[in-house]
Amino acid sequence: MAQNVKIREIVKDKTIAEIITNYPVVQDFFLNYNLQDLQKNLTVSQALEKILTEQLEEFGLDVFSLTEELVKFMATLVNNREEREKVQNITIIGGRNKQGEAENVTLTMAVGEVISIVGPTGSGKSRLLGDIECLAQCDTPTRRQILINDHPLSDEERFDMGNKMVAQLSQNMNFVMDLNVAEFLAMHAKSRLCENSEQVIKQCFVCANELAGEKFTMDTKVTQLSGGQSRALMIADAAYMSSSPIVLIDEIENAGIDRKQAISLLTENEKIVLISTHDPLLALSADKRIVIKNGGIHKIMETSDEEIESLKDIEKLDTIMLGIRQQLRHGERVYPLKFVL
Ligand SMILES: Nc1ncnc2c1ncn2[C@@H]1O[C@H](COP(=O)(O)OP(=O)(O)OP(=O)(O)O)[C@@H](O)[C@H]1O
Questions:
Q1: Domain-embedded: residue 336
Q2: Domain of 132: which CATH number?
């Protein structure tokens, strides 16, 4: 209620331009009522005084009721943005594997943690990500249950589209809209009510370009981005724009992007990151790894000090492999490995 009083004051005192700067979707509110031409340097009531009463009557409204509608609209936005309890941790309560045997595990992951999911092809890694994405409540084939901050979730919380807890970056991302990168980021910034949207858009763009091998521009159409570039853009988007505290990544290794930088970017931005992977570098860069076998969580392993030590050598091998990939890509000959090692 205190929130509504604050919003009523904003609507009363601020100019429309000021309101739109802080709440860009308010433009859509006015557009819905054909009021996109209101004078933006006036307050809402001053601007509404200047229009014909018939223009509002068309929608069964007068100045007072339209102002109330605007207050209600903004209150819903702000409540969605601010009221959600901050996610501190997520817990997987084991269900059953493909044979119906109990998993007997409970795993809690905290903000800033990276967990990799490993296992043979077809073992059920994506299924586990799917269970987390839908915040399963014993109602998927695995019968797992996901808790947030130690609590199960109501259907309303699970399916709240405006306030998604989980962002999933899947293996095959296809953009369906023919926007350019600038328009795409602006649309996301607007729908997610980002403050300082111009700055965030720029940050996302610069970061996505750092992550991607091949550079792209703000004018590049999103449908023309390569797999790696799209993945880089979505990772930057998840880190800087999305309010979803949990990020799921299904196989990042083939995307040709800077994997280590991508992961640290997400953890710096207070996310819980789960990555399904066949890549040793990624698997061992995580704090823990979940080993999946036959559709069930078979083991949970902490990355040991020895493994962390081995990472340096694995990184060297990875750089060699990257070099060979680049040679192939650029039509060069690959020389015998004895010259590289
Ligand atoms: N516990 C389970 N109970 C029933 N079905 C399961 C279970 N776990 C996984 N499955 C099913 O097994 C199939 C393969 O699982 P999934 O696609 O998750 O494998 P994956 O490890 O991600 O494979 P890849 O490495 O090839 O991407 C899917 O149809 C999935 O729904």
A1: no
A2: 3.40.50.300
